[in-house]
Here is the input.
Amino acid sequence: MRDTPAGRPGALTFASLASPLARCQAQAVIDRLQRRARNLTCGLELLNSPVADGPRSGEAFVAACRTEVAFLLGELAAGRARCLVLEAADMLAAGLGAAAIVCVPDRGAPFDAFLNRSGRIMDEMEPRSRIGVMSQRVRAQLQHLWPDLRFEILRGGVDRALEIHLRRSEVDGLVLPASVAEQLGIQGIVAEIFAPEFVLPGPGQGTLVVVAREGDDQARELLAPLHSEDSARELAAETAFHGRMLPDQDLPVGALARVEGAAVEIVGCTGTGRRHVAAAGAASEAAAVGGELALKLLSHRESLADLLDVDFPDGLPDERDEDVELLGGLGEDEPAGDREDDFDDLDDLSGFEDLADEDDDDPDGGFDDPGDGDDEESGRRRR
Here is the structure.
């Protein structure tokens, strides 16, 4: 990157990683902005990633891993760029620090897409076919729908996933955000697009954000022609939801917010996505509505079980083993008299048993069931 100033008044200098997806996303935002503000001068500085391929390949992200987002924010803070274009999903995972979102362009398609070079949809794939996915969320939902296929999580971002599928042919198909396929211009190999009733997207999916330094009101003003308040409110709801649902982990959690007029509704799910729960309210209170949805999910035992499945894919530990661990790992030969203090401690935990039974009177738990397998076909979009 050239050592350039942040930009003169009436000009915006953007910075982006040099990777194909990050570059395409930044350039797409610049092109859209200049079509709406023809007198605005924009520049794009491409930066090489400071992270080696090895560490990146172990992390779940779309366009930029957490270290790369932190690197870009450092360039912004140092004044070597005026603005950054970030994938909203990556921003949610990494955080913004002292920077601020100054523009949320119109949201792209928030759905997931199935890419296959032969044009086959998921129903046409041979049993045991290997399908690459990029998150626990997608794997959990698709494995429930197609148990005879093998869904493998590909870490290291979209660019690496495409290389694995298209160049190395190590997987028979690939599931990516539909918006990413459009940004990269590879819609020709999109065989199927899943409607949210069928596969619920992840928070922030399909959304790009423009980030600037806190207090850069002029950048916000220059970007105003590109800003969508509806998209910003949808993102606010999903951001609040994400912040409550253990955001530092890759969890099987989906959420999608929609603004209609003065109202916003956000739908969420955990695990297989078989059951959806919704929250709604005023669009001006979108963040509060997103937080309400997270509390609904976290208060339901089925949702908690879905999240535990990530840490215990082979099932929860044997009850007897848990009892031994609570008792300090005591062996069978240890005298019972030495265990009295441990049983006193267990008495303090007895109150938690009541919490596990709070939902027994509400078998549905406020969830809406999208339907059984016979109705699943109607919830899917195809090209």
Observations:
- The two ends are 40 Å apart (CA to CA).
- Residues 20-36 form the longest helix (17 residues).
- The mean pLDDT is 83.
- The chain is about 35% helix and 20% strand.
